[in-house]
Amino acid sequence: MLIETAVMDRFPIGYTAVAGILAGMLMAAASAHALQAPLDYGQGVNWACHPMKASDISRQPLRLTVVRPDLSVDSVIQYAQPAKQTGVDIFYVYPTLDLNLYPGFTAAEKIDTASVQKTFRQQAGLYAQFGRVYAPYYRQVNLGVYAFAGAKDQADLFDSAYQDVERAFRHYLAHDNQGNKIILIGHSQGSEHVVFLLRKMFDNDPALRAKLLVAIAGGSDTWVPPGKRSGGLLENVPLCPSRDSGLVPGCVISWRTYKAGTALARPGSTRPCYNPFLVGKGQFFRAFDTLAFQEKQYDFGYRAAKTLKRYIMADPKTPVNFVAYDGMYSADFLEQPAPPAVGLMIKNIQAPGDARVDPMANGGSNYHIYDMQIVQGDLLDIVKEMIARFGPAGAIHIATPRTGVFAGKAFRSDGRFVKTRTRAGNRSGNL
Are strands 223-224 and 341-348 parallel, antiparallel or unpaired? Predict the structure, then answer.
């Protein structure tokens, strides 16, 4: 509604006129995308992260600092650089960063690479401890496509954006996979493309499904027939069972986070989950139907409210440092009966005198932009256990907490390091 109001403010000529303008712009956007040459993923410039780039995050030692309520350091976890080949690869797709409200896509020359790099480090940087990380740039749809595009135009634009992601993934499979296990990670629009990738390439390919350790689809809508884990958005790739039921490989972890006390609602009517044209393009197995399907998400073991494992965020001043807050939040997985909806509900439980600044204090009631940070501690544990149980031998590198490093109050109240070091890299060149 806020987005809709913003657009109406920019076009004070009536909704019908706005709709006509947007329809013309959608046609122009789709044509412009078709005219652009396909991105060449044999070129380093088209990857935000790739093992062959000097700036690849897995070439740098990662450091996670756990901060106490008085801002002193509880421990520093150093993640050793993994071997060049661990038998596990991570393929990451970033969320919507183009907030333009006119429905369209991001042209290649308009991709905000700095924002992509920052988001990549925040959401997927710590997974470099497990293996090689691949993160392509792609010409994503912008925010307006979610709110204002008609179903067919929305499907056409999503499909165009997805073609870049699939092209990058096929290049990775052909040139880099070498039989490795695969972890897919996405958030928001990135999760849409992860699901599209699962449907188009994994769902009916048993050999490729056997390579999938887990697909992490943060901030996404997922649905199944009642009592089932597949047969909704995907035909054969299942959603992961409850955390307390144990881990199984080759499944999808999806979730959405909200402030505790928020009244949940079904997905809005313009969301891609309802779009039948995406089914026609092969991106979903079945579109969401509130009569035939139910929303299903991962509970992370929080079916009863308890303290969140660990909130993890990137230090904004360096690509290799991360900050963790323990004991700041509780989490409770809610399955709301009416209207039927699910979500992971987060509550701040800081005690008086806790000097750490709540990173989500101004986040409103929908914590979508914090989806990854909130459960990152849980996810890292899950991925580590999945690799140990279902991955190749020797893929796990044990990280030992080192207490006493940076003794005393090494952080400001906003969680940033007082002193940091970083290494320069580059983002060009052939692969």
Answer: unpaired
**Going along 256-366, which residue ranges are E strands?**
257-259, 294-295, 306-307, 311-314, 321-325, 329-336, 341-348
CB neighbourhood size of 45 (10 A): 17
What are the structure tokens assigned to 176, written together? 């880099």
What are the two backbone dihedrals, phi and then psi, of residue 411, each rounded to the nearest 5 degrees? -125, 150
Tens of each residue's pLDDT in the chain, 431 residues: 333 333 323 333 333 334 444 444 554 455 455 557 999 999 999 999 999 887 777 777 889 999 999 999 999 998 876 656 899 999 999 999 999 999 999 999 999 999 999 999 999 999 999 999 999 999 999 999 998 999 999 999 999 999 999 999 999 999 999 999 999 999 999 999 999 999 999 999 999 999 999 999 999 999 999 999 999 999 999 999 999 999 999 999 999 999 999 999 888 888 899 999 999 999 999 999 888 899 999 999 999 999 999 999 998 777 679 999 999 999 999 999 888 899 999 999 999 999 999 999 998 999 999 999 999 999 999 999 999 999 987 665 544 444 433 333 344 444 443 333 332 333 333 45
Residues 6+ apart with CB under 8 A from 83: none
Q: Please report which residue ranges of 238-370 form alpha helices under DSSP H.
A: 276-280
Half-sphere exposure at residue 340, Cβ-oriented, CA atoms within 13 angstroms? 11
Alpha-carbon gap, residue 140 to 238, rounded angstroms: 26
Return the CA Rg of the chain: 21
- Return the domain boundaries, the chain: 2-62+79-307+378-400
Least Cα distance to 86 among 406, 388, 417 occurs for 388
DSSP 278-290: HHHTTS-SS---T
pTM for this model (two decimals)? 0.86
Q: 243: burial class by Cβ within 10 Å (0-12, 13-18, 19+)?
A: middle
DSSP 407: -
Residues in the chain: 431
